[in-house]
């Protein structure tokens, strides 16, 4: 009986020790989320080109209006459409910028984005030739000040995790500029993507 | 049982351990047997991410010729419901610059190239839905539908890639998942024209033609 108890005790001790060691190891090692899905972030400001795996991107202009339209359709919002003019130069192969996956991140962390009600499809951008697109994002006016654009390098694949490389572009909207943008009422006509050349 | 009992001490050590080992294997036989299917289930349950590795998702298998003619061979599958084999002879007839093509001209800073391709395939081979690219000297791919400007008043026509418009041959009916045939049988040999705009200063070195991944054809542009 004593031997059996000793074996049992030893086994329990071994298991507890193994669990303790395992716990220390897993606590010290970085988590899969922290490593495998670690985003590759490029920070930039308005007007500054940022080069990612798929190409070079620059937000050249920020405009806003509660009404945006194309030649075919018009959309009205109770909030505001922030309209970004973006220059895209693909590298390696033709590219559709991730216009549905981009997000406007407010200074308090709220995210705005998704497929807008009206749009001009941006792309494909030919490598070596800069394509200029106007991308609308529906947003609430109180999120404008200090907001940033999070632009993924590519669209999300149908299978697999989301794109982990993205540009974080400070749109340079101060509190005063936000108030001015929120007050704009002139409807914006989204221009078709245009090739600016090399 | 007392540890110092003579009956235990007199016995050789090995059989006692052997008995204990056998007892453990016997006791846990069921779980050990279940371990194999449980491991298989665990792998299968977490295996969807590997679809990305096993499904031919990207174009990874080039069929290359330095010349301008290639016999292209590939097996294709459509949603695991339809399967077939694609054998076709591809020929780059010419790649040359053009002012305009199909109602489009090159955008500022670009040069338009007109690519004439000849295909030969049996009439029952699925040839619809290909993509054509021009490759630059550094391997950069240039595709259709970009770097061009619509000519004023022109109505660029809708063209089916790589098949004659009036007799495209078989195509996939995506609603009913069946292969339908065109009214007119496709000829054994036919030609198509594509146009692709490249940035000024980039000379095309190869033509890339692809249908379903992972196979694609790389041909020279000729002289």
Structure description:
The complex is a heterodimer of chains A (about 200) and B (about 220). Chain A is of the alpha+beta class and about 200 residues long. Chain A has a single domain, classed as Immunoglobulin-like, CATH 2.60.40. Chain A is about 20% helix and about 35% strand. Chain A is built from 3 helices and 11 strands; from the N terminus they run H-H-E-E-E-E-E-E-E-E-E-H-E-E. In chain A, strands 2, 3, 4, 7, 10 and 11 form a 6-stranded mixed sheet that branches. Chain A has a 5-stranded mixed sheet with strand order 1-9-8-5-6, with no helix packed on it. The model of chain A has no long low-confidence stretch (mean pLDDT about 90). With about 220 residues, chain B is α+β, with helices and mostly antiparallel strands. Chain B folds into 2 domains: about 15-55, no CATH class; about 60-220, no CATH class. In chain B, the strands form 4 sheets. Chain B has a 5-stranded mixed sheet, with no helix packed on it. In chain B, strands 2-3-6-12 form a 4-stranded antiparallel sheet, with no helix packed on it. In chain B, strands 4-5-9 form a 3-stranded antiparallel sheet, with no helix packed on it. The longest helix of chain B has 17 residues, at about 30-45. The interface between A and B is medium-sized, with 22 and 28 residues.
